[in-house]
Write a structure and sequence with these properties.
By secondary structure, the chain is an alpha/beta fold. It has two domains: about 140 residues, HAD superfamily/HAD-like (Rossmann fold, 3-Layer(aba) Sandwich), CATH 3.40.50.1000; about 60 residues. Helices cover about 40% and strands about 10% of the residues. It has a six-stranded parallel β-sheet, sandwiched between helices. Helix 6 links the parallel strand 2 and strand 3. Helix 1 packs across helix 4. The model has no long low-confidence stretch (mean pLDDT about 95).
């Protein structure tokens, strides 16, 4: 199978950033609303959504959302978000096959581009779709649909792969009628809700190459 395009989530899929992001949200939570219990499992269920959705999901009072987001952003700005070691070889091989690549992320487009530039991989991607480009982010299909529209592939959705690591990635892919692939790099058992919503599961990115031979 040669896909007509491959779409990637960013954090936790291309960037080895999950733990850094979790700790940044935890800092924001503790500094903004220490009286509200920190719930990491709840945060994980929200991952992949636009940043603005996180305070709502974490039960932060509305008047503290701006401060919450500001502290998160300030904390994250001071940290480097590195690539997983297997990313560049895989992107290079896919690019040689002339398959369009696109990032679809819950981060803002400009922030995502900066991260790609920092890691010298921005040239691999035809499009970058951030949360600021659609009214609704993941788990809605809107960001993926915008990517498909910009790639002029509306008539061939079933041949488009979406690679992500969160339930919101998978739900967005299903809603957009593309192929949802779970990239599960963790040693923990895959949660049932992820397993059930993934058409395919891979545990390392190079396994993706076996699907596009």
């Amino acid at each position: 199978m040669i896909p007509s395009a491959i779409l990637f989530d960013l954090d936790g899929t291309i960037l080895d950033s999950d733990e850094i992001i979790i700790q940044s949200w935890k800092t924001a939570h503790k500094q903004t609303c220490p009286s509200i219990e920190w719930n990491e499992d709840k945060l994980l269920s929200l991952m992949g959504q636009p940043e603005e959705a996180i305070p709502y999901g974490m039960n932060v009072p509305r008047d503290l959302h701006t401060k919450y987001l500001r502290i998160f952003s300030q904390k994250l700005e001071k940290l480097e978000l590195p690539l997983f070691d297997d990313v560049i070889p895989v992107l290079e091989e896919i690019k040689e096959k002339n398959i369009p690549l696109c990032v679809v992320t819950g981060a803002k487009t400009e922030e995502a581009l900066e991260l790609l530039i920092q890691n010298n991989i921005e040239h691999f991607f035809t499009e970058i779709i951030g949360a600021d480009l659609t009214k609704r982010g993941k788990p809605y299909p809107d960001p993926i649909n915008l990517a498909i529209e910009r790639l002029n592939l509306n008539s061939n959705k079933k041949n488009i792969l979406f690679i992500g690591d969160s339930i919101n990635d998978l739900l967005s892919a299903y809603a957009a009628e593309v192929v949802p692939i779970l990239l599960w790099r963790k040693k923990d058992k895959i949660p049932n809700n992820l397993q059930q919503n993934a058409e395919l599961v891979i545990t390392r990115l190079p396994s993706l190459l076996d699907l596009i031979e």
